[in-house]
From TrEMBL:
Domain Integrase catalytic: 97-253
Annotated PROSITE patterns: INTEGRASE
Gene Ontology biological-process entries: DNA integration; transposition
Origin: domain of life: Bacteria
GO molecular function: nucleic acid binding; transposase activity
Pfam family for this entry, one: rve
GO cellular component, one term: cytosol
Name of the protein this chain belongs to: IS30 family transposase
Length: 290
């Protein structure tokens, strides 16, 4: 039996924040944990048990979405435990990120090509402050392939990545694991809110000028993709008084030690993990990035 009476403040806040359409169980639990770290609260698993007991402020039948009703088990599998802890809702993002004052915060997306099995797509990254864009071909929409490609891109271009903001696409469901292994913060946009990563959306629109929907990216060479990326990054931009994204990016890079900053981020990820087997992943990332 769960001691329901032990969590009065948590129960009150959960009832206030929870919305079965827009603010689910995990999001509500995470918000309370972040905003009220000192209150007594159950684990996420215990929270679901409270709901399933039908004796709490939220009941299984009346308030949960259908996906939680059968057998009281949640879907999500292997990635769920990482996403719950390492993927944060966008409203928790720091003001310095939202205002674009801090360098090294990126938005991510996939530009989909011809919809056929095995066809290439384009992984796109946009740095929020400078609007610098990285474009890389990706062989699959698989979350594991995306994580591997993301790290290769980060290493190839020596990127300083403090955080990544993504949408809710299935291809991004392993970003929690990426955060777990690297220490890079991952933020998730609200559903149907592409404007929350507007810089990347606008940049993707520039790609579509050259390669419209249903383009077979297997027929586009890596060299042509690099040329497109250079053209976008060298465009004069009114927001920068007609300077280019690449000019702004180079200026920011001149003021930081990318290797030192990334090692701090990787170390942060290592410090969060307790298991020795997991720690080795972090050291491997640091070694490979140098």
């Amino acid at each position: 039996k769960l001691p329901i009476e032990n969590y009065p403040e948590f129960s009150k806040l959960f009832l206030k924040y929870f919305d079965k359409k827009w603010h689910g169980v995990e999001a509500t639990w995470t918000r309370i944990k972040i905003e009220k770290p000192n209150i007594s609260m159950p684990s996420l698993k215990q929270t679901f048990n409270l709901i399933n007991s039908n004796k709490w402020v939220i009941t299984k039948k009346e308030r949960l979405r259908g996906k939680y009703r059968k057998g009281g088990k949640r879907s999500g599998g292997y990635f769920s435990k990482f996403n719950t802890k390492y993927v944060l809702p966008i409203w928790t993002r720091n003001k310095s990120i939202n205002s674009r004052k801090d360098f090294g915060h990126w938005e991510i997306d996939l530009v989909i090509g011809k919809k056929s099995y095995g066809k290439r797509n384009l992984l796109t990254l946009t740095e929020r402050k400078t609007r610098m864009m990285i474009i890389a071909p990706i062989k699959s929409k698989s979350p594991h392939v995306l994580n591997a490609t993301l790290y290769k891109v980060m290493k190839k271009y020596r990127l300083l990545i403090k955080s990544i903001t993504s949408d809710n696409g299935l291809e991004f469901k392993a970003l929690g694991l990426f955060s777990y292994r690297t220490g890079i913060d991952i933020y998730k946009c609200n559903p149907y809110a592409s404007h929350e990563r507007g810089s990347n959306e606008n940049a993707n629109g520039l790609i579509r000028r050259e390669y419209p929907k249903k383009t077979d990216f297997d027929t586009v060479s890596d060299e042509d993709i690099e040329i497109l990326m250079d053209n976008i990054n060298n465009m004069p931009r009114k927001i920068f008084n007609f300077s280019s994204a690449i000019t702004q990016y180079v200026q920011e890079l001149s003021m930081v030690d990318v290797n030192a900053e990334m090692q701090k981020i990787f170390q942060k990820g290592i410090d969060k993990r307790a298991k020795k087997t997991s720690r080795r992943h972090g050291y491997l990332y640091i070694k490979n990035f140098q």
